[in-house]
Write a structure and sequence with these properties.
Order of helices and strands of chain B: HHHHEEHHHH
Structural class of chain B: mainly alpha
Oligomer: heterodimer
Radius of gyration of chain A: 29 Å
Radius of gyration of chain B: 18 Å
Strand order of the largest sheet of chain A: 1-2
Strand order of the largest sheet of chain B: 1-2
Number of helices of chain A: 13
Distance between the termini of chain B: 27 Å
Shape of chain A: extended
Largest sheet of chain B: 2 strands, antiparallel
Largest interface: A-B, 41 and 60 residues
Number of helices of chain B: 8
Order of helices and strands of chain A: HHHHHEEHHHHHHHH
Largest sheet of chain A: 2 strands, antiparallel
Helix content of chain A: 55-70%
Helix content of chain B: 55-70%
Number of strands of chain A: 2
Shape of chain B: elongated
Number of strands of chain B: 2
Chain lengths: ~300, ~200
């Protein structure tokens, strides 16, 4: 996407934007354009409406079908196990071939080493040439700045892994990375440190998909003051109606008589500013259940 | 999106695979149960036929069973399994394209079921006019899903309903992230055009 972005190119990118599949730069350009262009914001709302329609068209297989599939598979596997496995003869099984094959591998290695250039870098990572200078004997000396990729693995609650995950959750360059990280962090949301990261993502992440995932992880903690504050912020200021709706659901989960009356004021404030008919309807339902009016007088 | 086996740690899945590779039948069954709901959901959404979805389910897990001893963790198990499932679904879709069939009504143990009626009606319950409108939209979505190419449809399903990243979808379909992105772009463009009057 070029820097001089047009309405047409923004409109063409909205689906990928909602999926969080634009590059950081493109996402930035689209958002800057959206801030300044009411027409494209209308197009974005339309795109969100299209996505919502897709969501409604997802099919869930009936439980009986899964049960039948499992039973069929079990029967097929029993049959499979009862059949004698054919003896598999591979070229490697021929013991006479082994010395010949080993020799061939050695030969390939030897000749490959002879014909391969002296310097090759197959290590993953990025490199940048910093200096180039002639060296003796017609050779050249190149100084590279290299960034090597490194893989670390461990359980999500290992201290080092957790620190990396918490940092990745705020990585502004890649919404996909943040979404996957928040997903993993969700499983450890009983930790206050993780919860704080999820609350931060819910309040500040520019990508609606990431915010939605953070909200999923915070679901069991909706009554905690920090989480509750974040949910109220979503309710009153998040641009995504789906998130606003879910925030209502989380803030009003449980028997009506146990609900904090403080939510009434928030919902009344929402009613005074909400444009989305479904969110208004949902909010009104809750206010009705709580025997509160939709307006403040 | 969480992988289907979200309840398992990655190390648990690896342990299950290794045990199943050594012939542990319980481990194989646990592995199936960790993934089979999402496999069935994917097959059902792509093929919209319980019979075809059931065939894909059986064939996919039989292939996994037969080839698991050769699985060398070159990619994640999830990617490998989904590659098998999407290849089987693509075969079905391509055959169906040739036959020009598109079953709309599903025969299930609970009785005949229209694909679109199988989806929960979350927002339109109380309003007959809105319910009618939603029904029209769903009919239109159903039509346009049938008009997507098998690959567009697969990429769309994997991205929208399975929530997989395009990078992973590329790995599953044996293509690049860019090609998967183009496919998704075409699919959403077609869907948007088809829904033009409704939203």
């Amino acid at each position: 996407m070029s820097a001089d972005i047009t309405c047409a190119s923004v409109k063409g990118s909205l689906a990928l934007y909602l999926y969080g599949e634009l590059s950081f730069d493109d996402e930035e350009r689209v958002e800057l354009h959206l801030d300044a262009c009411p027409e494209c914001r209308v197009a974005l709302d339309r795109e969100k409406a299209v996505h919502a329609e897709f969501d409604r068209c997802e099919i869930q297989p009936p439980p009986s079908l899964l049960r039948e599939c499992r039973e069929d598979l079990r029967a097929q596997l029993d049959e499979e196990r009862s059949m004698p496995r054919p003896a598999r003869v591979s070229w490697w099984d021929g013991s006479w071939l082994r010395p010949a094959a080993a020799f061939a591998l050695l030969a390939i290695g030897f000749f490959a080493a002879r014909v391969t250039p002296r310097y090759t870098s197959s290590e993953p990572g990025a490199s940048r040439v910093r200096y180039v200078e002639p060296a003796s004997g017609g050779r050249v000396q190149i100084v590279l700045d290299e960034t090597r990729q490194r893989t670390v693995s461990g359980r999500p609650d290992d201290q080092q892994i957790r620190a990396l995950l918490l940092a990745a959750a705020k990585d502004s360059s890649d919404p996909g990375l943040r979404a996957e990280t928040v997903n993993i962090l969700n499983a450890g949301a009983e930790s206050a440190e993780v919860r704080d990261a999820l609350v931060y993502a819910l309040r500040h992440d520019p990508n609606a998909g990431v915010r939605l995932k953070a909200m999923e992880g915070l679901k069991p903690f909706a009554r905690e003051p920090g989480v509750r504050g974040a949910l109220e912020q979503v309710l009153l200021s998040d641009s995504n109606p789906g998130l606003r709706t879910q925030a209502i659901d989380l803030l009003t989960v449980g028997p009506t008589e146990n609900l904090d009356r403080g939510i009434v004021g928030t919902l009344q404030e929402l009613m005074s500013r909400e444009d989305n008919s479904y969110v208004r309807e949902r909010s009104q339902q809750v206010l009705h259940l709580m025997k509160a009016s939709a307006q403040t007088y | 999106m969480l992988e289907p086996a979200a309840l398992f740690q990655k190390s648990d899945v690896t342990a299950l695979i290794r045990a199943a590779q050594e012939g542990d039948q319980d481990a194989f069954e646990q592995l199936v149960r960790a993934y089979d709901q999402s496999v069935l959901r994917l097959a059902m959404n792509l093929l919209r036929s319980p019979e075809d979805a059931r065939d894909v389910y059986q064939e996919a897990f039989l292939r996994v069973y037969r080839n698991l001893p050769a699985f060398r963790f070159d990619c994640s198990f999830h990617t490998w399994l989904y590659r098998i499932v999407t290849n089987l679904c693509l075969d079905h879709l391509r055959k169906r394209k040739v036959r020009k069939e598109e079953p709309g009504v599903l025969a299930t143990a609970e009785g005949p079921l229209d694909r679109m009626d199988a989806t929960p009606e979350q927002r339109a319950d109380g309003d007959p006019q809105r319910r009618l409108f939603s029904g029209e939209v769903r009919t239109r979505v159903k039509e346009v899903l049938g008009q997507l190419t098998p690959r567009e449809r697969t990429v769309f399903e994997l991205r929208h309903y399975q929530g997989l990243r395009l990078r992973r979808i590329g790995e599953i379909l044996g293509t690049t992230e860019e090609a998967a992105k183009n496919c998704l772009f075409r699919a959403t463009q077609k869907m948007r055009v088809a829904l033009g009057d409704f939203v």
